Amino acid sequence: MPLLKVGDDGGLIQGSTSIALDLERRMATLARSSIPRDPALAFLVHLLEDYTDEWHMKGAFAWRWLLQDDDAVMWSARHVVADMITPASREEVRSVATKFLTRQRLRVALMGVGDGTGIVSCLQRDLLALEQHIEDGQRFLFGSRPSLADFAVFGQLSQLVLDYDSSKWLRENTPRLYAWTFALDEPSGIEGQWLETSEAYSPVVLSLLKNIGRFYMPYLDANARALAQGADSFEVKLPGGAVAHQPPIEHQAASLHDLRAMYAMLNPKSRAKVQDVLEQANVVKYLVDTSASVGPTAATSSSPSS
């Protein structure tokens, strides 16, 4: 979980999205912002960023800790802990990695991913759609400049390119996306323009919205309701028809609260730009039902790291 120290009082901001939004408020100019000025397009950016940051993280977690063979998963564990305990001997890294791997596999029950196959297949389909987007000549999701949603995609890919199995899959199935990940690692020279909202509904955006409506929004809604009711766990309906259980997570309930608040703030003209597409994707009904809302103060909690 990333932390950013801000101000002379040593205050901390926790979580990649919170840090990115704080940097936007304090430092971004209109020329360098990762959030479009058009409120409708900005809402789509926030929606896809949240989906990628949270739902794709489940897939990346399952791929890394559940679906690799013993040698590959140990390599992943050693890579993660080596950065934490440097300098250290090879034996020290292996010892800590073994304990860390055991910890991560015990945390699988908190993630609601079942045996991992369905959630990873969903992630792979999204990655293939992103690959096609690049093959079609589009560098980013919402124009010729990266948005917050693009950086969320990059965040998951920055880990997937490191693991043995996922890196091999990316090189074989999505070579352009694999290369894109390394190119976006240093984006300071990128200039570009935003699309108009009416032009933003590319096949990949529509595909991502479809999965948001089928899986992610029902998941966020069930999580928020379980938290509001004080339940110990709730059902997660996974791609492929499987059902898993997990305890409710406060910061994901706060994510739903924030998305609903952003949608409610759209004026009629801005809402009209996204309403029909979001209706077709089965997203709107989850944005207007506030019966299970949990306030933004819950966002201080964190989900298991990948």
Automatic annotation (TrEMBL):
**Which InterPro entries does the entry mention?**
Glutathione-S-Trfase_C_sf
From the UniProt record, which GO molecular function terms apply? transferase activity
Name the source's superkingdom.
Answer: Eukaryota
Q: Does the keyword Transcription regulation apply?
A: no
Question: What keywords would UniProt list here?
Answer: Transferase
| Range of residues in the leader sequence | none
Specify one Pfam family.
GST_C_2
Q: What is this protein called?
A: Glutathione S-transferase GST
| Organism of origin | Thecamonas trahens ATCC 50062
